[in-house]
Amino acid sequence: MVSAPWALPRVVVAAPASGHGKTTVATGLLAALRRRGLTVSPHKVGPDYIDPGYHALAAGRPGRNLDPFLVGPERIAALLRHGASVPTPADIAVVEGVMGLHDGAVGRRDFASTAHVARLIEAPVVLVLDTTAQGRSAAALTLGMAAFDPAVGIGGVVLNRVGSPRHESLLRDALAEVGVPVLGAVTRAAEVAAPARHLGLVPVAERAPESVAIVTALAELVEATVDLDAVLDLARSAPPLTTPAWDPITAVGGPAGIERPRVALAGGPAFTFSYAETAELLTAAGADVVTVDPLRDPALPAGTRAVVIGGGFPEAYAEALAGNGTLRAELADFDGPVVAECAGLLYLGRTLDGVPMCGRLDLTARMTGRLTLGYREATAVTDSPVARAGEPVRGHEFHRTITDPEHGERAAWRWNGTDHGFVAGRVHASYLHTHWAGHPAAARRLVEACR
């Protein structure tokens, strides 16, 4: 475990609200700094899976999440340090925020907010402002965002959607009055030319060529409009990280035996939602982790003893998933432990919108117009390959589908007095997305279940 202080330059990219351009600026910064020859570590506040995919493409290393709700605030700095250390030490870390700067988990003030994470990692903030129909008020907004929590240091702003040179001059003069540096200015036309409007809509793996073009355009946008040297100077003002790096081996207590059972993780375009720490924890617990693409691979990798199927958008690939009948049949009969979250739950059912799936679970699923979204505090209802009955866990839901029945006779979780998910034999499946860094015993338990 690395424990000596590390002067890691770092910044948090935040905004007063969603839609101001955080992802545009953060992704562009990652790509532009990498084009300068720097090793850049990408991070995202919150449970989101899509933005980290673009971050990974821009930085050339895994995008990682920093979510105090899912993993506990005590692990945030340690996870930042871990992510910035592997596979090689980074020259700078760029952390994209979530929602508005001070928006936290519902009913918990600013807990799990961008401001909360910025405090935990002692990082200065770059505030992205949508300046549409704003003049001097942009300075008042910035001043209010800074004064609301003096422990969060706003080191500068990037003006977004600037209308004209005169508009930019007015904004710069106003921000100079309140002593906040302007680090960049992006015009409305320039932002539209870089197709930022697509970001966050489709996972990067689902359209790799277009994603590469988007990231290249964002790099060029930031290079042309943002003072990268000023951003680097701001990042270098962060104090040394003194928290030891998170270590997956320590987290799981070492290997769960002398053999290395093979665990297959679902991947490919249909199953893009997975935290990097999942594979690291399984490996640390003694597993040989391999990837299987249910769209293309006709069978599980030879010797597979357990399967983990995470989230994604299987409804967009239902016909293609159905077409891979040999893998569906193998999963229907697979006798090892299977853990499935959200998209994985749908894939294991009998049908999705009438299209045949694996049939491992006796349920049907269909798309609806209603979005189910939010953090959950759950308790395991049934012993399973990842939890013992009564164990608490924190997770996150994000889906527009429903299942019939809504849960199994043996449920996976309970929250708010209601049962959720399915435990059937050695299968554990539910809509709940969990981050195993927050409960690493799940990885060890799964490896032990391979026996």
Using only CA atoms, what is the Rg?
A: 22 Å
Q: What is the CATH topology classification name of the largest domain?
A: Rossmann fold
Q: Which range does the strand content fall in?
A: 15-25%
Overall 3D shape: globular
| Total of helices | 16
In short:
This protein has 451 residues and is of the alpha/beta class. The chain folds into two domains: 228 residues, Rossmann fold, CATH 3.40.50.300; 203 residues, Rossmann fold (3-Layer(aba) Sandwich), CATH 3.40.50.880. Helices cover 33% and strands 24% of the residues.
Give a verbal description of the structure.
It is a single chain. The protein has about 450 residues and is of the alpha/beta class. The protein has two domains: about 10-235, Rossmann fold (3-Layer(aba) Sandwich), CATH 3.40.50.300; about 250-450, Rossmann fold. It has helices spanning about 20-35, 50-60, 70, 75-85, 115-120, 135-150, 165-175, 190-195, 210-225, 230-235, 250, 275-285, 320-325, 325-335, 345-350, 440-450, and strands at about 10-15, 40-45, 65, 90-95, 125-130, 155-160, 180-185, 260-265, 290, 305-310, 340, 350, 355, 365-380, 390-405, 415, 420, 420-425, 425-430, 435. A seven-stranded parallel beta sheet has the order 3-2-4-1-5-6-7, sandwiched between helices. Strands 12, 13, 14, 15, 16, 17 and 20 form a seven-stranded mixed beta sheet that branches. Strands 9-8-10-11-19-18 form a six-stranded mixed beta sheet. The chain is globular, with a radius of gyration of 22 Å. InterPro entries: CbiA/CobB_synth, Class_I_gatase-like, CobQ/CobB/MinD/ParA_Nub-bd_dom, GATase_3, P-loop_NTPase. It catalyses: hydrogenobyrinate + 2 L-glutamine + 2 ATP + 2 H2O = hydrogenobyrinate a,c-diamide + 2 L-glutamate + 2 ADP + 2 phosphate + 2 H(+). Its cofactor is Mg(2+).
